[in-house]
Amino acid sequence: MKISELLKQDKRRISFEVFPPKTSTSFDNVMSAAKQIAALKPAFVSITYGAGGGTSRYTLDIAKSIQDDMQVPALAHLTCVSSSRETIHERINDIKTSGISNVLALRGDLTPEMEAGGLVSRDYHHATELIKELKAADPSFCIGGACYPEVHPESPNQAEDIKHIKEKVDAGCEFLTTQMFFDNNLFYNFLYKIREAGITVPIIPGIMPITRANQVERAIKLSGSFMPQRFNAVIDLYANGIKLVHIYSMNKPDVAEKITDNLSNIINK
User: Fold this and answer.
1) Could you tell me which of 172, 165, 171 has the C-alpha nearest to residue 199?
2) What are 43-74's pLDDT values in tens digits?
3) Phi and psi at residue 49, to the nearest 5°
4) Stretch 211-228: mean pLDDT, rounded?
5) Contact at 8 Å (CB) between 35 and 69?
6) Which of 159, 3, 158 is nearest to 73 (CA)?
7) Which of 15, 91, 119, 207 has minimal Cβ neighbours within 10 Å of its Cβ?
């Protein structure tokens, strides 16, 4: 099922995220974890894409298994900034061949060389370019994009950031998933501003469960997120009308299971 269709349902749901292995030796363990998470029957499972596309084959293998074997919708990530146009076209063809219809189109992280301006001639600079190529390759793709409630780290201000988000939507992006945040008020304020800007596609809030103390510092470093003294509960999002919350559970089925159990009286399977 396409995620755009899932988001039209009047149900409170949850989704999870996993990442592919860096090497083939750990593939079986990651696949096992992914299947255990999928067995919880979330709305969908999102599978990330390694920097430079080094794990692209694993991304599709996991996505196809989740979708075909576990009967759970899979969202395959695809990044473009480190790849040539030829490589991206190959990846898009691989996605089509695998029968995956949900794609999260991302620019991807810049390498130190890119940040230094050493690859100014690269084929892709923004996710919008990838979204256009995905739509051109197969109009039936359900394409998602990313957004930052606290402003993309490279944007000069939120108004400029929202302008670029609208460009993604105008290019064919059907839903947006947020970078992790730790204060629900930041998300609500962001939601108000993008609706005011005419962006009407569904926004899925992304939450990173903190299971160890050292995760807090790392999460702030990676996302630039503001960390209040008290976390707002995920339940607050549902109480305020959010129908689907995305959990950055990574490859931890035990964490995914505990969250699912704790929300069992709220979410619909």
Assistant:
1) 165
2) 999 999 876 556 678 999 999 999 999 999 99
3) -130, 120
4) 50
5) yes
6) 3
7) 119
